[in-house]
Amino acid sequence: MEVISLAAGTSYFKSPETAIDAAVQALEAGHTLYGPTEGTLALRETICRKYNLDGIDLSASQVVVTPGTKQALFNLLTVLIQPNDEVVVPTPAWFGFHELMRYSPGKLVPLPTHLQDGYKLSPEMLEATLTERTRILLLTNPGNPSGRLYSKTELEALLAVTNKYPNLYIISDEIYDLITYSRAFTTILSCEGAKASRTIIVNGFSKTFAMSGWRLGFIIGPNDLVKKSIDFQGATFSGVSVFLQEAAKAAIELGSAHLALQKDVLTRNREIMRQGLEAIPNVRFYLPDGAYYFFPDLSDYLGHTSISGEQIRTTDDLCRYFRSCYNLELASGDLFGAPGHVRMSFAVEPHRLQDAMQRLRQGLLLLTA
Ligand code: PMP
Question: In the chain, how many domains are there?
Answer without folding.
Answer: 2
